[in-house]
């Protein structure tokens, strides 16, 4: 057996990890590169790995996987000469976006009021900007919360956080905002394999399958048996002796998949988003009843959950008012229900927004459904879709990665182009303007047509302090839009937001 000396960034459901392909009798097996080069097999359905030789930056090899067979295809599908800054990963927050480029470069754009862009100030950015503070940190994963951001270094050595610090969501032991990335000291040495961010809380999975949580806990979303916020990561004791392979976080609920394919839910359950058959909250993780099918992938929207079974079925449960469950109706569903319209396809990645959902098929086709007021589904219209519709891309490009923000969506195509659509009010689409778009539109700063990386501004390389000095006395999130009778307007004041019963307390800062 001969190991290929490559660095690989592989899409894994709703997250990513650093993997190493191993050549054995002309077949590739995917194994994780843990400490001391030991290998641990990941049974996740993967769409593809983008791998490169560290000393030959322009050579990229893409490996394509079969979700149905849960294994890699025999052949290396493509080998291309990539541009100087190829996009490897994307993640969308409430109103900001982040991308990881080759060479461990992290870029951000969109709303910056809470420091979530990590560039040292609280200004919005209409175009991607490079985070110099993370230069040389071997970053291999980026993940957005609503108004904060996380990054993880290779082998899980360090986890960084920045942005809005209320409720302790940054994990630094206080509620201070951070305008530049800071390492979470409580996670040092734990070999973190995956990070998931909700609205105001975070989850982490270690290399040996343990789960830690921190941040807001009003509805038990931390799984600690209490409703007290946690300013630092704490171990979820329910999973002691039950190795976890994947976690996902919604606004105020959390889910996890065990090594054996069991699904657990906890936290806020008012809309059935825990999948437990009722509308009750859970302060501790509880197993979701399944009909013998194992769960291999899961993602959370704001108040709904999306999952994939080992047989390939796509299931949704939770809040359905805007069709975000994809069942052709606007009903809530308290247990996972199969989306019959997609039963003839297999899926490699899922993502949930505030009121919309996206699913990426193994053949590169992208499907979306749910709320579409700002064009976040990408159909060219602004009408809601209660059943899945295919999202079209120029020249029928296949999609390899997706990420839903609250009201915008990001995608990477097989050519390496990054597209965005939906709400653009804070520049989260990355087009240098603040208009909405209802069809996928290429982000020119990341274009593979000879200009990749050439238009990306750099942030300051150092700051005297990473804490916010904002003098704004009342700060509030981009409050979700709840249409009123005869109007499509959004709340125009803090008081209106507080009176909007569709908005949980955590959304009003």
UniProtKB/TrEMBL annotation:
Polar residues composition bias: residue spans: 484-493
Source taxon at top rank: Eukaryota
InterPro entries reported for this sequence: RCC1-like_dom, RCC1/BLIP-II, Reg_chr_condens, Ub_ligase/GEF_domain
Ranges for domain RCC1-like: 185-446
A Pfam family that the UniProt record links to this protein: WD40_RLD
Annotated TM spans: none
UniProt repeat feature RCC, residue ranges: 104-155, 157-208, 209-260, 261-311, 312-363, 364-415, 416-476
Keyword field contains Cytoplasm: no
Gene3D superfamilies: Regulator of chromosome condensation 1/beta-lactamase-inhibitor protein II
Residue ranges of the region described as Disordered: 478-509
Keywords: Repeat, Signal
Signal peptide: 1-16
Keyword Signal attributed: yes
Descriptive protein name: RCC1-like domain-containing protein
The organism of origin for this protein: Canavalia gladiata (Sword bean)
């Amino acid at each position: 057996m001969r190991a290929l000396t490559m660095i690989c960034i592989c899409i894994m459901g709703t997250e990513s990890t650093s993997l190493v392909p191993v050549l054995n009798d002309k077949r590739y097996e995917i194994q994780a590169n843990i400490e001391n080069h030991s290998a641990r097999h990941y049974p996740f359905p993967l769409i593809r790995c983008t791998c490169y030789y560290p000393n030959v930056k322009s050579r990229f090899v893409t490996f394509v996987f079969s979700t149905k067979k849960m294994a890699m295809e025999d052949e290396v599908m493509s080998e291309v000469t990539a541009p100087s800054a190829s996009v490897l990963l994307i993640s969308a927050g409430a109103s900001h976006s982040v991308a990881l480029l080759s060479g461990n470069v992290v870029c951000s754009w969109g709303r910056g009021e809470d420091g979530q862009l990590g560039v040292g100030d609280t200004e919005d950015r209409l175009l991607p900007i490079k985070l110099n503070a993370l230069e040389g940190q071997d970053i291999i994963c980026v993940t957005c919360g609503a108004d904060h951001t996380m990054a993880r270094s290779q082998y899980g050595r360090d986890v960084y956080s920045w942005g809005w610090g209320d409720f302790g969501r940054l994990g630094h032991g206080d509620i201070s905002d951070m305008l530049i990335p800071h390492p979470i000291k409580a996670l040092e040495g734990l070999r973190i394999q995956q990070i998931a961010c909700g609205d105001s809380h975070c989850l982490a999975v270690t290399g040996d399958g343990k789960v830690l949580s921190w941040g807001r806990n009003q509805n038990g979303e931390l799984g600690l048996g209490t409703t007290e916020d946690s300013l630092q990561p704490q171990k979820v004791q329910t999973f002691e002796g039950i190795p976890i392979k994947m976690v996902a976080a919604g606004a105020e609920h959390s889910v996890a998949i065990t090594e054996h394919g069991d699904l657990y839910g906890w936290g806020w359950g008012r809309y059935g988003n825990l999948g437990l058959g009722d509308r009750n909250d859970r302060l501790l993780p509880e197993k979701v009843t399944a009909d013998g099918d194992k769960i291999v992938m899961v993602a959370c929207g704001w108040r709904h959950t999306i999952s994939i079974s080992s047989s390939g079925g796509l299931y949704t449960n939770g809040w359905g008012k805007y069709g975000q469950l994809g069942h052709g109706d606007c009903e809530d569903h308290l247990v996972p229900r199969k989306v019959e319209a997609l039963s003839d396809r297999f899926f490699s990645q899922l993502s949930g927004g505030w009121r919309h959902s996206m699913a990426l098929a193994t053949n590169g086709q992208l499907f979306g459904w749910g709320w579409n007021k700002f064009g976040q589904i990408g159909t060219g219209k602004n009408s809601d879709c209660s059943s899945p519709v295919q999202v079209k891309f120029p020249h029928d490009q296949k999609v390899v990665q997706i990420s839903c923000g609250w009201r915008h969506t990001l995608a990477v195509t097989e050519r390496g182009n990054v597209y965005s659509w939906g709400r653009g009010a804070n520049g989260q689409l990355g087009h240098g303007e603040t208009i909405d778009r209802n069809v996928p539109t290429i982000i020119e700063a990341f274009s593979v047509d000879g200009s990749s990386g050439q238009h990306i501004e750099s942030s300051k390389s150092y700051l005297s302090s990473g804490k916010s000095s904002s003098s704004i006395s009342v700060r509030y999130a981009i409050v979700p839009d709840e249409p009123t009778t005869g109007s499509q307007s959004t709340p125009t004041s803090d008081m209106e937001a507080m009176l909007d019963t569709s908005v949980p307390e955590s959304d009003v800062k």
